[in-house]
Amino acid sequence: MVKRPFRFSVGGGGPQSAKALAERARKAESIGYSTYVLSDHLLDVLAPMPALATIAAVTERLRIGMFVLNNDLRHPAVLHHELATLDVLSEGRLEIGIGAGWNLPEYKASGIPFDAVPVRVGRLEESITILKGLFAGEKLTHTGASYTITEMEGRPRPVQQPHPPILIGGGGKRVLRLAAREAQIVGFAPRIGVSGGGAFDSCTFEATREKVGWVRDAAGARFDEIELNTYPSFRPASVTDDPKKAAGELLERLNKNAPVALTVDELLDSPHVFIGTVDQLVEKFTRLRAELGISNIMVGNGIDDFAPIVERLAGT
């Protein structure tokens, strides 16, 4: 298993002025965060494309990305044009996070059909084929179940060749196998249902070890080229002197939606729960890399709380 240097990404895309977003992005860059990421929801958040262009304009080294785009919200030909433009504007600092879509309420509110998982994942797979074809810069013709492209040339060409790195994440075997074949960054997620319930045991350390195995088997010889990612799934990441209390409160909240067959210690051990002292979290991330190969950490909005951890681990 290749030992990759740690990279940390941070988010924070609530409604705010360009000036406020710029100040936050410059702060992230000065601390040592690798990437500033924004989500993609039809909710009370900034639209990722213009917001990321704003960040790119006021930073020099900070990479920009999505965590993650909902494939169902854009035709891949339109999406390619926006992504290539962002890579050009940022001088080659774009990372493309993309997924099949999951948030049922926004589908219902917008009237976008919420198809079954196999349909959405199949559509995502087709989109990735189209995106890569258009990034290649040659005329692309594609006829598939969801999209038809006819003699389309992908312009502008991205700075990063053959294309900006792609992050695909998920908790199920089908999506992770797709990510293993197609992505440069694979993100691990628990298998949680659209209503917030689901198999919470899929968030454990050993469950994640199993998912890494799925990726390794599907990736074959290219496994060592893949960067592995995780993120806090159930509550914002937090630095605290009383992690057991915070984890107990989280467990109590989760149990209100569905029974969670986990102990406080198992929850704290989860690769999807970032609660602890600075030293404990440094130790946790070091273990995630040593045992699972995970070196890419998305910390959510906790730019200040996680600064001491980023300063100690980023790039090492």
Question: Secondary-structure blueprint of this entry?
Answer:
Layout lengths: L6 E4 L7 H14 L3 E4 L9 H11 L4 E4 L2 E2 L5 H14 L4 E6 L4 H7 L6 H19 L3 E5 L4 E6 L12 E5 L2 H10 L2 E4 L16 H15 L7 E4 L7 E2 L3 H15 L6 H6 L5 E2 L1 H15 L1 E5 L8 H7 L3
Parallel strand pairs: 1-2, 1-13, 2-3, 3-5, 4-5, 5-8, 8-9, 9-10, 10-13, 11-12
Antiparallel strand pairs: 6-7
Helix pairs in contact: 1-2, 2-3, 3-5, 6-7, 10-11
In short:
With about 325 residues, the chain is an alpha/beta fold.
Structural features:
globular, eight-stranded parallel β-barrel, 42% helix, TIM Barrel
Polypeptide structure, described:
- The chain is α/β, with parallel strands linked by helices.
- The protein has one domain (7-313): Alpha-Beta Barrel (TIM Barrel).
- Helix content is 42%, strand content 17%.
- The protein is built from 11 helices and 13 strands.
- An 8-stranded parallel barrel has the order 1-2-3-5-8-9-10-13, surrounded by 6 helices.
- Helix 3 (76-89) crosses helix 5, helix 6 crosses helix 7 (205-219) and helix 10 (278-292) crosses helix 11 (307-313).
- The radius of gyration is 19 Å and the shape is globular.
- Residues 194-198 have low confidence and may be disordered.
